Every structure is written in structure tokens, then in C-alpha cells.
Amino acid sequence: MSVIGGALLLFIVTLTDLNSCARPNVEAEVNGTELTYEDLEVRVKHEETITKIVTGKLNDDAKDQIREGVWQQFVQENIINKQAGKLGLVASKADVQNALAAVSPQQLEQVAQALQYGQTNVQAIPYAQKIMMMMARIGAQPTAAGYKQFLKEIDKSIAQIQKQNPEQAQQLLDIKEACLYCESRIPAEVITQKYLAMVSLGQVANPVGAKMDFDEAATNCNLELAFVPTSSVEDKEISFTDDDLKAKYESVKDIFFQNMPSRDIKYINVKVTASTQDIDDIKKQVESVEDTLRKVTDAKAVERIMRSAKTDVPFANVYLKKDAFTETNINVVASHLDSMHIGQVTPTELTTYGEKNASYFATIKLIDAQTTPDSMQVCQFAIDDKAKADAIIKAVKAGSTLSAEAAKHQDMVKKYGLKGDTIWQNTAYYLAPETTDSAASDEYKDVCQMSKGTTGFVKVTNPQDGKPVFVITTVLDTKALTKKYNVAAVLTPVKFTTATYNDKRKQLNAFLAKNKTIEDIEKNAAKAGFTINQRPGFTTSDAMTLRMNIGGEGAKQAMMWAFEEAEVGEVSKLYECGKENDQLLVVALTAVNKGDYRAWDNPTVKQQLTEMVKAEKKAEKIMAMAKNVKDFKGASTLKNVQTDSQPEISLGQLSMYVPALAGAVERTAAGKFTGAVKTATTIYFAQVNGKSAANGATYNETAALAQSNQRILSRIFGQQGGLYDAFIREAKIKDNRFKF
């Protein structure tokens, strides 16, 4: 029984351990707070929806940025929350309402402009402002009261249009869920703001420090400089041992700290591109289409040609303003339009297209051009009987109105929702006109080409039953006449062929077959045309970033190999990866580092220490040479010395570039010599010829205290060496996102 009991106990303990440790859906953890795969995906999906609603677009690069942004947000929230929790900071319902109420129209206008000019992104906008921007998108009042009313009525609105327009109903549901998500994120923002505000209020500049800061900025110096770079001393002139490296390591140990496990890796990443033969073949294909386009004049014939052409810009047979091509990055079309005549085809040329400015071969045919209004005031009524449509048009021409005629056909008004109301319609682009078969509207070609005061119909197809519908239109007024172009643009991307890809893969595999060790790969990579990339201290967060940059399943597998399978000194197999299956990747592992201080004898660390110790030994040698230097004349005769003159430089400027020299100059009276000043890379000597107040500056304690306080806060909240950087060092972070 005791044996059985022991076995059961072991089973229970093992099962408990597995349940507590083997959490395959946990992607990351910060200070004990877990981020599961499901939680991350939900947050990313919401953020993607918000970006799409606010900006109207969402590409793959934006998705990658959003995913990384959600992770950074999770880390920051949990780090700040730990500190805020110690102070008892919370976010109340009133705080959330205050955040919503604080959003002003001026803020929304400023944010919209910043988004338009690329000065910010959607993720950087506070969540309360995001809610109001989404309210404005759907025409709701962008205020706290307007948002409350939206939530009160949205479910009813969705239910009403669900059957008639399920797509629009889904859009409204997406906006509702996005707004509720934003509202749920406001408390975390409030807590962060409260904590940072408390830190800011706790930092006060003192008069002594403010006066020192003022003197530094307001004092100009007239200097003669002499300096000897440590690099001027040859390596053979110095010597050092591992003990020197160890001693240096202890003095600068903090720079080698990492709060996450890491690897030192080296890798070859090859991006496959089109060969010369590929480029020639693609150019010939486009030239063939160019030749065919020259032989036709009819838009229908052009459409048939374009249907079989390999182009990333499909032919829609529409009229567009010139601006439409620049706004969609089809600049090659816009650049030719003003100089082209109708029917002309441009010679095939190499150009760029798209957000990433990829290479394309292009040829363009200008089919037609029309000067038409950008907006039109119209009355419209739809009916599904052609004879009745002709009769209504005849009645309108005889003096009736569309609204009056529509009142006689309430069944059609109910069916199609058009009752002859007057509206302004955007006609900045339009389809090429189809031939009408209505004798009653013989002057009619297309709504956009109709003259003011005319009536006609456009024949469309009812998507529900496939039957024709006749949309009768009266043009009441027009605005903004502009020229519009019907263009067929062939833009064929310059891409590599399968043969080219296979050739590059064979070359890399052949190289790896001959060079199996890291040493051999490093020695022979350049001769074989490959570049070695080095990433010391490569964390799992770095792995996620690299994986996203390269893309593809192969990049994920390569990162998992480096962190979970590889032994030091091993070289991986060749991984096929890339967002467009266009990259090859080989990884080599050179060191494994625990999540604390990287060891002094880590190859990369040792190399850094070696450079530091070399510089110190060389500096000592120069200092020994300069021990008898008493004045600037003596300094200027030293071996390898260089000289410079700075007749008017402020101590503040000098402090930014060479703080040690600035300190020495500040302590040295006018007309005196500083002596030797040692820095990390150079030994300086300065003759202080004079000091003066910059621009007659006078000290104002109140202004100086404000500026000094601003500098203190800048240091506290700076990216490096600031408060958050210190918290990151203390945080317990586990990041396994690269495996998902």
C-alpha cells in the first residue's frame, strides 16, 4: 500500500507541476502577469480594427507595427502598474468619464493633421481621442454625451439594418466593439498619467543647480585646443592580460546586464531578387502589351487586352482626376498625363510603384479625357420597368418633377429608397458611359456627363434578383469642373523566377556544404558573396522583431532552433522564409547567456572589453608622454597631436560633446592652461584665452529654475538611463512570442 500511495503521490505532484509550468498558450509574462495567445490576438484584432476605421487602410507593415505596439504597451502597463500599486493609485469611473469629456474639437483636428502628415500613428493616440475620432467617422457627435447616445442606440440601429444591409450592420458592430475596447483601455492610461504626474511633481530644481545650468549655457569661451587620439598609439606599443579585462569588466559590468536570457548569433540572410534574364523577360512581356495597345482605339478592346496582361493595376474603365493617381502612388501615370494626347501609348519604362516603391515595368494608354463636375446636385428615383421609366422622363420634360412622379409609385420608393429627394452627389470619378437604348433620353450618356437641367436614366442590375433597374436622374446643379482621364496602365512587377530562386538556394547550400563551421563561414563568406550579420545579446524579444522583419514560417523555425535546439558552435540548416517567400536564412549560435550579466569571457563581451582596455592603456601612454607638459606650446609639440581653435563656444555646447573637457575649462580661469584631460578616446589640452557672457545674458532665477526643472524631467523620462529604463532592468520578463 505504501508503494502504491507513493506512486499516486508522485503522479499528483508531477501532474500539478505540468499544469503549473506547461502553459503552451502563454506567449509572455511581465512581473508575474501572463499574456496568453488568445489575449494577445484579441488585443491585436481590436487595434487593427481601430486603425482601419480611423485611417481607412491597414497593410501588412501596419499589422506588424500594431502587434509590436501591443506588446510594448503590455510591458509598460505592467511595469508602471507595479509602481503605481505601491502608491495605491487607481482609475475610477469618473476618471474615465473625465478623459472622454476632456477631448476637444481642437485636439481631434490636430491629431487628424498629425496622422495625415505621418507625424504620429493611431496607436500613439490616447484611447478617449480614438473613440471620438470613430464617432466623427460615422457622423455621431464626438463628445462624451454623443458617445453615450451612440451606445444607447447602436444595438437598435444594427438590428434595423441587419437584413437590408448586413455589411453595414457589421461595420457598425465593429465600431461599437472597438469603442468599448478603447473604453476598457482608458483606466490603464489614467493610472500611468497619475503616476507620471506624481513623479513630475516630486522633482524640483534648486537655485544652486539652476545657477550652474545657466552659467554653463551663458558662458562663451575662447579656446585653443590640442588633442591626441588614443587610436594614434599602435597596438604593439601596449600590452594587457585577462586580469586587466576582468578588472575592466567589474567596473563596467552594468552595461552587460540583460533581464532576459539571450543568445549571441551570427547569420546570413539572402534576399532573392530578379536576375538580369528575369528583368529582360519581364520588359519584353510589357513591350508586347504596349505594341498591342497601340493597335486598338476602342475601350472594350483595351479591356480585353488588359484582362490578360500581367498588371498590378487592373483596368476598371473609369474616369479619374490626375490627383487620384498620385494619391494611390501611381505617379508614373500622373507624370505623363499632361503631355499625352488621346489614344497615345507611352514606351515601356522602368518605374516604382506602391508604398514600398517596388520596381515595375510600365506602359500607359490614354483612352479618353473629359471635363466634368466633381459634384452634382441631383434628384433620383428608381423603377424596374423601362416603359414606365421612359414615361416618367417624358413627364419631367413636360414640367413635372421626379418627387411628384415618385409619389405615384410608393412601391418603388419603398423597394429602392429613392423618392426624388435633392442631394449632392460626388462625381470625382465615374465609369465610362454605356450605350443607352432609351429613345426618351437620347441626349443622355452618363450621369457625370449630363448637363445642368437634363433628365435621363442609368440602367443597373439588381444584385438580389439580377433584373434591370432604371435610375432616373435630373441634374439640378454642378460644381468644380475638372479634367478626368480614362487610362489603361500596365504595371508589371519586376520579380524573380522560380529558376532564379532555386539557383540562389543551390549556391548557398553549396557554400554551407563546403563550410560547416562558424570559423569557416566567417572566413569565406565574403569571397562567396555572402554577408555575415552579428547579433550579440540577442533576446527572445529581438527574435520576434527579426522574425517579423524577415517574415514567413522559416524565420519562426530559425528563431526556435536558435533558442530551443542549438548548441554553441552549431550552424543551422538553410531556412526558406520571407513575407513574399523571397529570403534565405542560416543561423549560427556562438554563445548562450543567462538572464543576468553576460559573462566577461563571452566572445562579444570580451571583444568590447579588449577595445576599452586598449583605449585605456593607450591613454595612459599618452598621459605619461604629457606628464611634463606645462603649457599649450608644450602640448602642441606632442607626437601625433592635432590642434584646433574655438574662438566662441559655450560651455553648454562643449558639455554636450566632451563633458570632461567642459568641466576642466569651467574650472580654469581666463589666460590659464587646463593641463591634460583624459576622455574615452582622446587626451585633450586647452588654453583658455577668455570667457564672456553669451549675448549679454542676465540671470533670472525664476526662468532658470523652470528650465532646470525641465532638464531634470527630461532626464527622468528619457529613453536611456531614465526612470522607465531603470524599471525595465528590474522587471521579470519572459517573451516567447517568437514561437507563436
Task: Characterise this structure.
Helix content is 49%, strand content 20%. It has 740 residues and is of the alpha+beta class. Helix 3 crosses helix 8 and helix 20 runs antiparallel to helix 21. The two termini are 45 Å apart.
The gross shape turns out to be globular
Q: Please, how many helices?
A: 27
Poorly predicted runs of 5 or more residues: 1-21, 435-445
Computed structural class: alpha+beta
**Rg, Cα atoms, Å:** 36 Å
What separation lies between the terminal Cα atoms? Answer: 45 Å
Summarize the structure.
With about 750 residues, the chain is α+β, with helices and mostly antiparallel strands.
Indicate the topology:
Elements: H1 2-21, E1 26-30, E2 33-36, H2 37-55, H3 60-86, H4 93-101, H5 105-116, H6 127-137, H7 144-161, H8 166-201, H9 207-218, E3 219-229, H10 242-251, E4 262-271, H11 276-294, H12 299-308, E5 318-320, H13 322-327, H14 331-337, E6 349-353, E7 358-383, H15 386-397, H16 402-407, H17 410-416, E8 422-426, E9 430-431, E10 455-461, E11 468-493, H18 498-514, H19 518-528, E12 533-539, H20 540-550, H21 553-565, E13 575-577, E14 583-593, H22 603-625, H23 632-635, E15 642-650, H24 651-657, H25 659-667, E16 677-678, E17 682-693, H26 701-716, H27 723-730, E18 733-735
Antiparallel strand pairs: 1-2, 1-18, 3-15, 3-17, 4-12, 4-14, 5-9, 5-11, 6-7, 7-8, 7-11, 10-11, 13-14, 16-17
Helix pairs in contact: 2-3, 2-8, 3-8, 4-8, 6-8, 7-8, 9-24, 9-26, 10-22, 20-21, 24-25
